[in-house]
Amino acid sequence: MEPRTAPSLNPHFALVGGQEAVDRIVDEFYRLMDTLPEAAAIRAMHEPDLGPTKAVLKKYLSEWLGGPKTYSAERGHPRLRMRHAAFGIGPAERDAWLLCMKGALESVVTDGVLRAQLMQAFFKTADWLRNDPQGNPHDNHR
């Protein structure tokens, strides 16, 4: 998921409700990660204090959705695979992440078609980040 930052190329930032909605999505995403038993393994990959991680995801997600280019200005290219290389990401981790994001989108984004489009894009990225040699990299059963 390379950031598409020009609003004319990616109107999703406005469609989801702007920064306030992105902030709510990220907050709900991490609330679910903290509470869903299915997300315990991916929660364990994070620091106890999620504050800094939330701040980064809010900036990244805003930019990816077509909002302000704050993430790139502060952190450069996302380099998602490099940044996640230290973590074993297989089908279970991918699916746990997607479960949390699905719940977050369902609680914030009212447009079902938009939610489906976003989940499709999130699946592609989450699956692309898989690096677990035990997992089948072509296990795209969704």
Strands, helices and their partners?
Elements: H1 12-16, H2 18-35, H3 40-43, H4 51-64, H5 70-75, H6 80-84, H7 91-108, H8 112-128
Helix pairs in contact: 2-4, 2-7, 7-8
Q: Would you kindly provide a written description of the structure presented here, covering whatever features stand out?
A:
The chain is an all-alpha fold and 142 residues long. The protein is 61% helix and 0% strand. It contains eight helices and no strands. Helix 2 packs across helix 7. The longest helix is centred in the N-terminal third of the chain and has 18 residues, at 18-35. The radius of gyration is 15 Å and the shape is globular. The two termini are 18 Å apart.
Characteristic key phrases:
142 residues, mainly alpha, 8 helices, 61% helix, disordered N terminus, disordered C terminus
Concise structural overview:
This protein is mostly helical and 142 residues long. The protein is built from eight helices and no strands. The protein has helices at 12-16, 18-35, 40-43, 51-64, 70-75, 80-84, 91-108, 112-128.
The total of beta strands comes to 0
Largest sheet: none
Following the backbone from N to C, one meets helices and strands in this order, namely HHHHHHHH
* Low-confidence sequence ranges: 1-8, 136-142
User: Helix coverage percent of residues?
Assistant: 55-70%
How would you describe the shape? globular
Q: What Rg do the Cα atoms give? A: 15 Å
Q: Kindly state the mean pLDDT as a whole number?
A: 87
Structural class: mainly alpha
Distance separating the two termini: 18 Å
- Tell me what portion of residues adopts beta-strand conformation: under 5%
Number of helices: 8
